[in-house]
Specification:
The protein is of the alpha/beta class. The protein has 14 helices and 13 strands. The protein has two domains: 128 residues, Rossmann fold; 142 residues, Rossmann fold (3-Layer(aba) Sandwich), CATH 3.40.50.1980. 45% of the residues lie in helices and 17% in strands. The strands form four sheets. A five-stranded mixed sheet has the order 11-10-9-12-13. The protein has a three-stranded parallel sheet with strand order 3-7-8, with helices on both faces. InterPro entries: ABC_transptr_periplasmic_BD, Bact_iron-sidero_bind.
Amino acid sequence: MSRTLLRTFCSAFIIISLLVVATACGKANTNSMPDPTASPEASPSTSQEAAFTFKDTKGEQTLDKQPARIATTVTYLTDHMIALGLTPASTVKSQNQDFPLYLKPFLNQVDIIGEQGKVDFEKLLDLQPDLIITDTNSSDIYDKYAKIAPTAILENGYVAPDWQTAFRATGAAFGLEDKAEQVIQDYGKHMDEAIAQIHDKVAGKTLMVLRIRNDIRYYGDMDYKWLYDQFGFSRPAVFPVTSPESRYEVLSKEILPEVDPDYILLINDNDDIYSELTGFSLWKNLKAVKNDQVYSVASDSWFGGYGPNAANSMIDDLVRLFAK
């Protein structure tokens, strides 16, 4: 073979080899680029992580993804969802004019959608929630909620024997049982620390839990058994018989001298009636009044609260008042 022919053959071989390599690279690059016309296909694990399932009184529902804009219509459920790590984007005010003090630190960027029992549906619709959480007190308006967004309707937590039972039920509804148990355990540690500071200082001292509403209400073991059994306060000789159906006894002011407690925890929801009560000599002659041991506590937590944040705030109140 002549040198000229050999050079021509080698040059042709090199050119053909380069073309083959370039073609292969071109195919590889084409395969690695996404097709803009193709629908993205999520992997099973990604799809499963994005789904959000809950169980309520209607059964089980699954949302396509974790809700980013949750709305709650009951204060205790707002408390529950905060504790479970699902702080709502919108919720109702308490029976007072704003969010309860014990929840305010968590609700700086949260929209108000009315008052408990008086939700502003237009405002709720404007906010476009991903999920609405309510309870069976709102059964008659469930359909109105469901037209706005998927709605979880839970059993009325206020009828549970204690906030822990209600909170566990909420945790279970959203598959967060372990988180709920951890929150309850943390509360137990908080209580144990408070008991260590208070018990010996108040043991044997009588305590009355009094709420001024449209009448004078004397609360007992149905709501405040833990004050007596765990913190060491004694029950006055005259003590109310309570039950889930009757959580307090209406008290005649003439009975006050028979109760005559060492301490009064006062939940005042009616200034007019309280002012009238404090004008009576029967009130002025009580031991707790004469010794300046009538302690006002917030209605939002001590009466309206039914969740872990409210419960922890009550423990903080006790430490503030009695661990002196």
